[in-house]
Design a protein that fits this description.
By secondary structure, the protein is an alpha/beta fold. It is 42% helix and 13% strand. The chain has 3 domains: 299 residues, 3-Layer(aba) Sandwich (Rossmann fold); 177 residues, Rossmann fold (3-Layer(aba) Sandwich); 125 residues, Rossmann fold (3-Layer(aba) Sandwich), CATH 3.40.50.920. The protein has 25 helices and 18 strands.
């Protein structure tokens, strides 16, 4: 499309600088998505040079605005913005886009560059992450602001979302809960460019976005992507709306500035090419010969903005220091939030709280949760409309609701997909230890968010109950089979399946302390008898992930039975039946991941090399052969379950002590 080059203002020059840097990064890599950065460079330039509150020298400032590029394929837009805004992002970083060892990967990745708030690219995830950040902001403000001091939460969650983000189902779930909670601190720009990879969005997408978001309870605004005054006005109107999240429907042109590829799918995911890049520069009135060039006027514009922002930051820190002195108790509590403080005697407290009676591990977990809520002030969480079944409600605390963010409990509604991503957003915001709960079979709906939490190393906790065929009468649609194997297969996810109260307390203790990625607690619907251990048993052994729960009755070992969760008592029952015939050791594998992290000496001490191993787990047995290279018998599920009482299912699928003992004897013959 033709560009008016007769009088290019400083504003337009700044936008074109971001536009050209983005295109050059893609071109040099010969890989990437130039179209979206080209189309939205003006919007981004206005936002970052005039409105976004942040400090490039202190990227983790708690009271900063957050900017989420949900349309993560346009990552060069974000990298270019970070560079011109004064972050520790160099021209060499832009030049090394998508290369080995680069700090500028193909999609934004959390912890690669300062200023990247979340890992985006899988569409819709950033949209929902931002909702989580907005909730966390409201929660911090509710806890630490007062009539005199309004230091927290007075900022916004900005984002750029694409057609693809809005097509993905997760955006529907997240938008719905954001509207319900009246999250007026969300301001998203919808890059309405009418193009996806396959062609015009009209191929598949004809809904009225404004009416859709109005129905969710959002404020909807409209602007042209290249009219700076209407962009400014839209942002100001969005900021003034306190009870409705805002989506600014921004009519844009993918590949804006390109003479031949604008408004075409070709510019979505492929470099312009050298000739088209040259023609684009000419079309935009870009009169600089040097590649990756930032004009002095643009440097000065963003440099001046940075100085204002730093002054604002120091003004805030001065007020914060005064607040700390005037409110020492609140300041101490805030420090606990920020540093994820945990009491030193937490394990002992949780062990005492859980008790020793027979019960479902979901019920035992509830006892632990009540104690954690009492002891750990920043512990929050909720369920996807299943709290009475997952036993995750914190009984002495209120729930988050519109205008009421002091509580500890979440009602996510039947929105597992959004719940997973919102948990990530809350964790990314900082200050909270958060969990989300549903049935294990519905972890399928959360898997994209779990995977991203693992990539980012976020210590989110998942409480997955109804963990096997033994949930019973609801039948195979609700009985997880492959889900344990799937979760264990995701790198950086730690899965714990406890068998009784001690192991449940240990699982929660581990989850609260773990920092390097998400933790999944896998809990039963049905009651389990407590494991009888020796008087000299040290509960700290459980934290090793794999330990001897019942010793063999001879000097030598004929067999190790390894098991998890509700099948551990079955293993012990089989051991007793085999007494006199075989010297059998029973090992609990609370967590394969934790056990695998030990050195070989420890693992061989628990499961010696030359001893046959039988593994019992009422699930798919995929992966157990990777843990044990011994002669191996797997007693698990090879198909789906059935609808019947769990005791019947145990008998029909071969999970009784007698049946297991018989299988082992036949196998060893």
């Amino acid at each position: 499309m033709p560009i008016d080059k007769t009088n290019i203002s400083l504003e337009k020059l700044a936008a074109n600088t971001i536009r050209i840097l983005s295109v050059e990064g893609v071109q040099k890599a010969n890989s990437g998505h130039p179209g979206m950065p080209m189309g939205m460079a003006d919007v981004a330039s206005v936002l970052w040079s005039e409105f976004l509150k942040h400090n490039p020298d202190e990227p983790k400032w708690v009271n900063r605005d957050r900017f989420v590029l949900s349309a993560g394929h346009g990552s060069m837009l974000l990298y270019s913005l970070l560079h011109v805004s004064g972050y520790a992002v160099t021209i060499d970083d832009l030049k090394s886009f998508r290369q080995w060892g680069s700090r500028t990967p193909g999609h934004p990745e959390y912890n690669h560059l300062p200023g990247v708030e979340t890992t985006t690219g899988p569409l819709g995830q950033g949209f929902a992450n931002g909702v989580g950040m907005a909730i966390a902001s409201k929660m911090i403000a509710a806890r630490f602001n007062d009539d005199k001091n309004q230091l927290f939460g007075n900022h916004y969650i900005y984002g750029i979302v694409s057609d693809g983000d809005l097509m993905e189902g997760i955006s529907h779930e997240a938008a719905s809960i954001a509207g319900h909670l009246k999250l007026g601190n969300i301001i998203y720009f919808y890059d309405d460019n009418s193009i996806t990879i396959e062609g015009n969005t009209g191929l598949t997408f004809s809904e009225n976005i404004a009416k859709r978001f109005e129905a969710y309870g959002w404020q909807t605004l409209q602007t042209d992507a290249y009219d700076h005054e209407t962009i400014r006005t839209s942002i100001k109107i969005a900021q003034s709306e306190k009870e409705k999240p805002t989506i600014i429907i921004t009519k844009s042109h993918i590949g804006f500035g390109s003479p031949h590829k604008v408004d075409t799918p070709e510019v979505h995911g492929s470099p312009l090419g050298k000739e088209e890049l040259a023609e684009t520069k000419k079309n935009l009135g870009w009169n600089y010969e040097q590649d990756f060039y930032v004009p002095e006027e643009v440097k000065n514009l963003f440099g001046a903005r940075k100085k204002l922002l730093i002054n604002e930051y120091y003004d805030w820190t001065n007020k914060f220091e005064s607040w700390e002195k005037e409110n020492p108790d609140k300041a101490e509590l805030f420090n606990k939030y920020e540093n994820n403080w945990l009491p030193e005697n937490l394990y002992e407290e949780l062990l005492n709280a859980v008790g020793k009676e027979a019960n479902a591990t979901r019920v035992l977990s509830s006892k632990v949760i009540q104690k954690i809520a009492e002891l750990v002030p920043n512990f929050i969480g909720g369920s996807a409309d299943l709290a009475p079944s997952t036993n995750t409600l914190m009984k002495n605390y209120s729930a988050i609701a519109p205008g009421k963010f002091e509580g500890r409990n979440f009602h996510f509604g039947i929105r597992e997909h959004a719940m997973g991503s919102i948990l990530n957003g809350i964790t990314l915001y900082g200050g909270f230890k958060v969990f989300g709960a549903t049935f294990l079979v519905f972890s399928d709906y959360m898997r994209p968010s779990i995977r991203l939490a693992a990539i980012m190393g976020l210590p989110v906790v998942y409480v997955f109950t109804h963990d096997s065929i033994f949930l019973g009468e609801d039948g195979p649609t609700h009985q997880p089979i492959e889900h344990l194997s799937v979760l264990r297969a995701i790198p950086n996810v730690t899965v714990l399946r406890p068998a009784d109260g001690i192991e449940t307390a240990a699982a929660w203790y581990y989850a609260l302390h773990h920092k390097g990625g998400p933790v999944a607690l896998i809990l039963t619907r049905q009651k389990i008898d407590p494991i009888v251990r020796g008087l000299d048993f040290d509960p700290k052994e459980v934290l090793k992930g794999g330990y001897i729960v019942s010793q063999e009755n001879g000097k030598s070992i004929d067999l190790v039975i390894a098991s998890t969760g509700s099948e551990l008592p079955v293993a012990i029952a089989a051991q007793k039946i085999l007494e006199g015939k075989l010297s059998v050791r029973v090992v609990s594998i609370l967590s394969k991941e934790i056990f695998e992290r030990h050195n070989e000496d420890y693992k061989k001490k628990i499961v010696p090399d030359n001893v046959p191993v039988a593994v019992i787990e009422a699930a798919s047995m995929t992966g157990w052969g990777d843990l044990f290279r011994n002669k191996l018998l797997t007693i698990g599920m090879t198909g789906f379950g059935a609808s019947a009482p769990y005791q019947t299912l145990a008998e029909k699928f071969g999970f009784t002590g007698e049946q297991v003992a018989k299988k082992i004897e036949d196998w060893l013959k």
